[in-house]
Amino acid sequence: MALLTRAQIDAIDDRKWEDIPVPEWCGEVRILGLSGTERDAFQASMVRMGSQGNVAGVNLLDTSARLLAKCIVDDGFERLYSDKEVKELGKKNGAVIRRLYADAQRISGLTKESVEDAAGNSEAAPSGSSTSD
Questions:
Q1: What's this model's pTM, rounded to 2 decimal places?
Q2: In the sheet where 17-22 sits, what is the strand order?
Q3: What's the CATH number where 48 sits?
Q4: Which helix (H) or strand (E) holds 10?
Q5: I need a labelling partner for 128 at 20 to 30 A (CA). Which of 46, 58, 73, 109 fits?
Q6: What stretches of the chain show up as alpha helix (H) in DSSP?
């Protein structure tokens, strides 16, 4: 397999998305997986820092709704909920939010299973050529 160039990597649209049925809402929602930058920011938002710059705890407040607000998009892949509208989304049926949260985690690669699947599906890297004899 040939090495990719930066232009080739930049040109690829590799974000995963799925339309998920939500019978409780009489339709479907589109879940778009987070980009690498969005994923890092989401994970960082869960850490509560202390006054000395040390980790003071974990911020689990509205975790499900915060992730879904970043992942639920319209047919043009524009977010339906801004970060300021998380509370509104969080008011919806908790069972539905939890189910969609699990889908958003999976699609974004935020679950242990997703990481293991990715590792199991990847081929071993071929060894590089050696200059020594």
A1: 0.77
A2: 17-22, 27-32, 72-73
A3: 3.30.2220.20
A4: helix 6-11
A5: 109
A6: 6-11, 36-45, 63-71, 86-90, 94-108, 112-121
Summary count for the chain: helices (H), strands (E): 6, 5
CB-CB contact of 31 with 102 (8 Å)? no
Q: Structurally, how many domains does the chain consist of?
A: 1
End-to-end CA distance of the chain: 25
Q: Does residue 91 sit within a domain?
A: yes
pLDDT in tens, 111-132: 765 444 444 444 444 444 444 4
Contact 107, 17 (CB under 8 A): yes
Domain hosting 106: range is 16-110
pLDDT digits (tens, 9 = 90+) for 4-43: 999 999 999 999 999 999 999 999 999 999 999 999 999 8
| Alpha-carbon gap, residue 99 to 81, rounded angstroms | 18
Q: In this structure, which amino acid lies at residue 79?
A: R
